[in-house]
Amino acid sequence: MSLSRQIAGQFKEVQLSGTWVATNLKTQLSDVTWEQATTKVGPLNTIAALAFHINYYVAGLVQVLEGGPLDIRDKYSFDMPPIHSQADWEKLLDKMWADAEKFASLVEQMPDERLWEGFVDEKYGNYYRNLLGMIEHSYYHLGQIVLIKKILMQQDM
């Protein structure tokens, strides 16, 4: 198996279908209502804000992998459109899963040699570093989502 395919598989595991850490984002978010997703727990980000934030970077890298510019900026990574209904929440999730599938597919098709090429600007390192960063970033926020969800479930009891 190529390294690119391995990276794509690991990304799919955290985002869509894996159990490397016993769960994944899609499983954790599948039973969250829009009210839960937008409920603030102390000073923590909401589940919806974290989902948007994760996907903000995935969508930004999809654009680059498709040959476009790197337009994403950290200062906008939590600028989520308001969620006022279950339909709004599901729209965010549908985009998240579609972007994750597209990201994984583009990475899977990437020749391994490209992994070592510079990513957009020298300061960002190579493609390998940025692709692994997406996996690490997703796991980091998956952990936060799991904890916030547990707190919300306990409050509902």
Major pleated sheet: none
Bin the helical content.
55-70%
**Average pLDDT score:** 96
Structural class: mainly alpha
- Report the span from N to C terminus: 47 Å
Instruction: Report the principal-axis shape.
Output: globular
The beta-strand count equals 0
Number of helices: 6
Question: Which architecture name does CATH use?
Answer: Up-down Bundle
Provide the succession of SSEs. Answer: HHHHHH
User: How many domain units?
Assistant: 1
What is the percentage of strand-forming residues? under 5%
Low-confidence stretches: none
Return Rg in Å. 16 Å
The H-level CATH homologous superfamily, spelled out, is dinb family like domain
CATH class: Mainly Alpha
Assign the CATH topology.
Four Helix Bundle (Hemerythrin (Met), subunit A)
List keywords for this structure.
157 residues, mainly alpha, Four Helix Bundle (Hemerythrin (Met), subunit A)
Description of the molecule:
- The protein has 157 residues and is mostly helical.
- The protein has a single domain (3-156), classed as Four Helix Bundle (Hemerythrin (Met), subunit A).
- The chain is built from six helices and no strands.
- Helix 1 (3-17) packs parallel to helix 6 and helix 4 runs antiparallel to helix 6.
- The chain is globular.
